[in-house]
Amino acid sequence: MARPSKRTTLREVAEATGLSTAAVSYALRGKHVSKETEQRVRKAAADLGYEADPIARALAGGRTSMVGVLSGDLQDLWQQQLMAAIGRELLAGDRYALILDAGGDPERELALAKQLRDQRVDGLLVSPVDPSAEGWAKIADAVPVVSIGDSLRRARTAGEVLFDNRAGIDTVLDHLRGLGHRRITVLTPTGPSTPDRPADVYVREAADRLHLTVEVLPCAQELGEATAVARRVLDGAGGGGARRAVPTAVFCFSDSIAYGVYAAAAEASLAVGRDLSVVGFDDHPVSRILTPPLTTLDWGLADIAKEAARLAVAAIEGRRVRRKRILCAPRLSERGSALGRGPG
Amino acid sequence: MARPSKRTTLREVAEATGLSTAAVSYALRGKHVSKETEQRVRKAAADLGYEADPIARALAGGRTSMVGVLSGDLQDLWQQQLMAAIGRELLAGDRYALILDAGGDPERELALAKQLRDQRVDGLLVSPVDPSAEGWAKIADAVPVVSIGDSLRRARTAGEVLFDNRAGIDTVLDHLRGLGHRRITVLTPTGPSTPDRPADVYVREAADRLHLTVEVLPCAQELGEATAVARRVLDGAGGGGARRAVPTAVFCFSDSIAYGVYAAAAEASLAVGRDLSVVGFDDHPVSRILTPPLTTLDWGLADIAKEAARLAVAAIEGRRVRRKRILCAPRLSERGSALGRGPG
DNA sequence: TCGCATCAGTGAAGCGGTTAAGTTCCGTGC
DNA sequence: GCACGGAACTTAACCGCTTCACTGATGCGA
User: Fold this and answer.
1) A182 and A149 belong to one structural domain
2) Is a pLDDT exceeding 60 seen at residue B344?
3) CATH assignment of the domain containing A100
4) Which parts of chain A sit beneath pLDDT 70?
5) Which partner for A280 in A165, A258, B280, B327 could form a disulfide, CB atoms 3.0-4.6 Å apart?
6) Cβ distance A330 to A168 under 8 Å?
7) Predicted pLDDT at B4
8) Burial B296-334 (b: 16+ CB within 10 A, else e)
C-alpha cells in the first residue's frame, strides 16, 4: 500500500554520472549535449532502472504521451467499438489512450474533459453528448481537441471527423421507400438535452420530400430500455400513449437500438425482414450475424479511428494538416432486415 | 494550442485572503483551521474559480481520485461491457475511471499498469492477460490492485473477483453431454503466451470424467478471426490441418467467439441449434437476440462490476473488508443454441 | 592574434501543491 | 502567578522534472 521501493530519480542518475540534473534531463531527451555524454547518461539511466516520472514531468511542463478519449455514452456498442479502435490506433503510435465514459451526461462530459485537460493529456478525442456546450472552448484552448461525429460549435478544435448524417438518412429513407414502406418510425439516441442536433430536421426534410409518414422517438442505447421503447412502437402505443398505426419499418440511429427492436419483434412474433423492416446505423460486427442480418450503414469504423487519431497526433506534434475536417460518407450494407412489401 | 488562460493557483487564493498557501491548502481540505477561516477561504476560492491542479497535488503526494481500469483485450465484447460497467460504478462514487486496453499483449499490459501507477491512480482494476507476470508484484506494492477473472499470483492484491471457471466448464459440458453430444470443440481465447491458465486442464478433466472427445483450440476475439477459426473447425480441417471429424457442439470461452461460430455456421448452411450446438461464456446482451438465442453462462456482469469497484474503493479508503476474494458462480442461460441430438 | 559565434554543461528558479516543524497567542488547572 | 498545552497559522522544505540564463571552452574567419 505504501510506496516502499522508491523509484530512481533524475538526481540519482546525475550523481552517478557526475553531471547536473539539467544535463541528464537534456541528454535523455537527446537535446543539446554531446553524443558521448548522451550515451553515458543513457547507460547509467538504464543501469539504475531510471524511468522519468510522468507526473513530475507534466508539472514541469513536458509531454505526457497520454491522449484522452472521451465517449459520450459507452453503453452504446458502437462507441465501445470506436473507443477500442481508437485506443489501438494510438497505442500503435506509442501513446497511452485513456478512455472515459460520460454516461450520456453533458455536465459529466465537461467535467471529465476538464479532468483530462488537467491531467495534461497531450490531446483529446471526443465523441460528444453535447457538442454545443460552452465549456468546450476553454478546453480546446488548453489542449488540442478532435471531435468525432459532431462539431464542437463553440470551440476551435484541432480537427473533426464528421458523419454525413444527411446522406445517411437520405440513403436509408430512400431505400425504405424503394422497398415500399410509407409508415416509418425513427429511433434516435436520447441526449438528456441534446440541443441543436439536426438529425430530426434531416429526417423530416427527407420524409417530406419522399412523402413518408415518419415518427421520431428518442431511445436509450441500453438493450433493455431500447427493447421497451420498441415494444411500445410495435404495440402502436408509442409516444404520447395515443393508439396509432404500427410502422412497417423502423430506422434506428444506432445498431444497439436496432437490437432492441429485434428483441421486441421476437416477443411480438414478428419476423424481422418480412413483417417488419429494421435498419441500423453503425454496422457493428455483430449485426451481420443476426437473423436476418441487419441492414445498416457502414461508416468505416476503422478509418474513422485512424483519421481521428491521425488528426490528434498531427495537432499534438504541431504539424499542420491539409484537411482538418473529415466527412465520412455512409455505405448502405444491404442485408436481410429490410425487405420489400406491397404498396400500402 | 498554447495555454492562454492561466488557471488560478493556490497562491492567488492565499493572497486574496491574506493567508499562507498552507493555510488555504488545509482549509480547502477541511483540516486544522477554524470554521470561520474555512468559510472565508472557500468563498474566495469559489469567487476566483479556483480548482486544485491534480497534477501538482499528485506530485506532492495527494489523492488523485482517478482509478485505472485495465482491460487485457478490449476487442472482446464482454470486456467492453465490463469496462463500461465498472466505469459507471466508479463514476457514481465520484472517481474518474481511466479505461486502458492492453490489446492482448502481456508486455503492454504491464507497461500500461506502470504508467497508471506513475499517474498516481488511487487504485487499479485489472482483467489481466497474463496474471502470473512478475511485474504485478511491484505494481501492487505501490497501488491497491483488484484483479478480475484471475489471481495475480505473484502479487499482494487488494482483492479479486474470480469466476468459478471449473464450475462453468462442468456445467456446460454436463449440459452438452446431457443433450447427447460426444464430440465437442472448445474455443479458448488466445493469450499470446497465456502461461498457466488452468482452463484447458479443467476442460480435459471434465471431458475425461464425462467420456467426451474434446479438442481445445485457441481463438482470437475479433469476429473476423474467430470466424476463420470456426470455419476450419466446421470444415473438419482444424488444428494441425489433419482432416478429422466435425464436432457436434462448439463450446466458446467468450460470446465474441461464439458469434464467429454463428457466422461460420451460416456460411456452411448449418443451422445452429439443430445441426450444430453452440454455447458461449459471457451472456453478452446481444446474445439473447441472436437466432437462435445463444445458450451461454451468465456470471452477473453488473455484480462483478459492483464488487470489483467496491473492493477497490475500500482499499483506497484504507478500509478492511471481510472477504477480499469474491468467487462468482455461473448460471446457465439455457436458450436455443444448444439442443439435443440422438446418441452418436 | 583577436573577437565572436557555438557548443557543452551548470545553477537555480519555477510548476502548484502538501506537510513536517515551528511560532504565536490564549485559556487553564494548580 | 505560571508553566503547559492546544488551536490557528506560518515557514520552508520538498515532490521530480524542465528550462531559462549564464559560464567556460573551443573553433574559426579575418
Assistant:
1) no
2) no
3) 3.40.50.2300
4) 1-5, 191-197, 237-244, 342-344
5) A258
6) yes
7) 44
8) bbebebeebbbbbbbbbbbbbeeeeeeeeebebebebbe
Name the residue among B75, B74, B77, B69 with its Cα closest to residue B282.
B77
Q: Which amino acid is at A139?
A: I
Domain enclosing residue A18, as ranges: 10-52
In a domain, B54, yes or no: no
Domain annotation covers residue B335: no
- Give yes or no: residues B291 and B306 share one domain: no
**Residues 85-144, chain A, touching B (beta carbon < 8 A):** 87-88, 91, 96-101, 103, 108, 112, 115, 118-120, 138, 141-142, 144
Chain A, nearest residue to B84 by Cα: A74
Q: What is the pLDDT of residues A260-319, one digit of tens each?
A: 999 999 999 999 999 999 999 999 999 999 999 999 999 999 999 999 999 999 999 888
**Per-residue confidence (pLDDT) for residue A196, from 0 to 100:** 58
Query: What global pTM score does this model have?
Result: 0.89
**Most distant CA pair in chain A: distance in Å?**
87
Whether residue A191 is found in the same domain as residue A204: yes
pLDDT at B240: 53
The interaxial angle of helices A255-267 and A77-92, nearest 10 deg, is 150
Asked if B69 and B97 touch (Cβ cutoff 8 Å), the reply is yes
What percent of chain A is helix, strand and coil (3-state, nearest 5)? Answer: 40, 20, 40
| Distance from C-alpha of A71 to C-alpha of A181, rounded to nearest angstrom | 34
Pair (B158, B256) in one structural domain: no
Q: Are B297 and B283 in contact (CB under 8 A)?
A: yes
Same domain, A175 and A282: yes
Closest by Cα among A193, A198, A127 to A162: A127
Please check the confidence at residue B3 and state whether its pLDDT lies above 70: no
Domain tally for chain B? 3
Claim to verify: residue B260 and residue B290 sit in the same structural domain = yes
Distance in Å, alpha carbon of A343 to nearest chain B alpha carbon:
29
Q: Give me chain B's average pLDDT, please.
A: 90
Closest partner residue to B55 (CB to CB) among A5, A58, A112 is A58
Alpha-carbon torsion angle B100, B105, B110, B111, nearest 10: -70
CA distances from A326 to A86, A196, A305, A316 (A): 16, 21, 12, 18
| CB distance A27 to A46 below 8 Å | no
Nucleotide nearest to A53 (CA to C1'): D16
Q: Are residues B72 and B42 in the same domain?
A: no
Q: Which chain B residue's Cα is nearest to A224?
A: B285
B321: confidence class by pLDDT, cuts 50, 70, 90:
confident
